[in-house]
Amino acid sequence: MNLIPSVIRKEPGKRPTAVRIARTLGLLPGLLLTLPAAVHAQFTYRTNHGTITITGYTGSGGAVVIPSSTNGYPVASIGDSAFGANAGLTSITIPDSVTSLEYAAFWYCTSLASVTISTNVTWIGMSAFYGCASLTNITIPDSVTCIGYSTFEDCASLTTVTIGTSVTDIRDDAFSSCCSLTGVYFRGNAPGLGHGTFEDDDNATVYYLAGTTGWGRSFGGRPAVLWDSPVKATAASFGVRTNRFGFNIIGATNIPVVVEACTNLALPGSPRRTQTRPVRRDARARRRLRRPRRPHWHQGGLRRRKCSTSLWPRC
User: Fold this and answer.
1) Helix, strand or coil for residue 135?
2) Residue-wise pLDDT tens digits, 41-79
3) What's the CA gap between 107 and 98, in Å, rounded?
């Protein structure tokens, strides 16, 4: 039985020597015999002190879910160039077992439009998503502490980035040449920046939360402003409805938003009702404020909304 072709993946400019083959067969004899056929066909890998590193992908592309374990061994890392230059890959889901994305793990996956990064990843390596031209948004989980050199460089369709609370270091050119980037949303304190982090991102604005530190009027050469929870006044649900006033709010997860309504803002003694509700997710959250059942409430009553920054929690 010839097992070598399914285990050793020839890398550009390298040949699988007898030493490399022997080492691989020595590390993985049990895995080779018992690994499910579908997984065996799609991924190449190596063991590393009782964990698995994915080293290559041979599947047809599309939506790919990386397994969290193989034959009892946890998948802990996506190795160098493991999915590199795979034009058929459209989405990738990285399991919670993975803690690191190594050098160029998904570079030039030009059709990759959706990435779900596990909540245990702490390191995103150099050029991990370089040139992923179809990627439109990315959320860096709170577990990540460092974003490597050129990690998202030249992602031409990337419009929004949300960065978790634990990131302390963003290396050179991490988001440079992302010409569609409009918003970079930081959930924690200002991290250290390398050179040219947002170079050529002429339309990008940096947003930060109240209660976080290290921010000024600009950050990395881009304007920096308080991350408010704007009301989408152009949405179809905005305005007066039967017994309610509808609007959409976009904001960070679990940030309390104070909503007040009254019959006449010009009169301090007007009947008023206040509701405080958290924005439940990073996407749109619809909020309905029902009229208080007071005898003096009338159809033409004025309403207003405000955000109380003093109620926003520290990250």
Assistant:
1) coil
2) 599 999 988 999 999 999 989 999 999 998 889 999 999
3) 18
